[in-house]
Amino acid sequence: MRLRVLLITFIVFTIMSSGTFCIFYLQIGRLQDINLESIQNRLYAEDTNIMLWAINNIDPIHVNDASIPESWGEIMIVDNNTLKITSSTNNKHKNLYMHKLPKLLDQATPVLKAINDKKSLIRKTKDYMIVIKPLENNTSIVGLKPKAWEAGIISDQTSVLMRHVAQAKIIIIISLAIGILLSLIAALIVSVMVTKSTRQMLSTLDDLSLGKFNTQVPESNIYEAKAFATSFERLKTSLTMSLERLGVR
Length: 249
Description:
Helix content: 55-70%
Largest sheet: 5 strands, antiparallel
Structural class: alpha+beta
Number of strands: 5
Number of domains: 2
Oligomer: single chain
Mean pLDDT: 80
Radius of gyration: 42 Å
C-alpha cells in the first residue's frame, strides 16, 4: 500500500510541477522570436533625417571642425574635378579620393553623374545612404550614412537578450529537477503518514478482535482518523455490552 500511495502522490506532484515549468519554459522561449529589426529601421530612419538636416545647415568651411556623433554618419566636402575629399567630419578620410571609400565606389555611376551634373542626389541601399548636394566653387557636400551603427546596437541587445533567455532556461531546468526531487520527498512523507495512520487503525481493530478491549485509537488531527476513533469506541462499547449480556465478561 505504501508503494502505491507513494507512486500516486509522486506522479501527481510531478505532473503539477512539470506542467508549471513547461509553461514558463515555453513563454521564455518565445522571447527568442522577438524581432528587433523594426527598431533598427526606425533608428536608422531617424539618424538619416538628422544627417539630412546637418547637410543642409552645416557650414562647409567648418566641416573639419564639426564633431558629429557616429550615429549621424559622415559629412565631407569633395572637389568636383579631382574627386578628392578636401574636408570631412572623419579626419581619417581627409585628402583621400572618393574611390577609396568602398561604399562610394559601389555607387560610382549615380554619384559621378550627380557631381558632374551638379545636381542633388539621395541614394539609398540596404546597408547605407548617400546624399550629395552641389556647392559653390565647383565642390559638393557628400553625406554617407551606413546602417552599421544601428545594426551594432541591435546586435548587442539581441546578444544580451539571448544570453538572458539561455540562463533563464537553465534555471528552469534546474528548478524542474529540484521540483521533481521535492515531489519525491513530499510523496514519501505523505505515504508514510497515510500508511502509518492506516496501520494503526488496522492494529486497533485486530486487538479488538482478539478481545483486547482496553485498546485505544491513537490521537490524531486528521478528520478521518477522528471519525474512525469515534466509530471504534462505539463498536467497542457495543461489543462490551453484548458480551456482558451473554455473561462472557
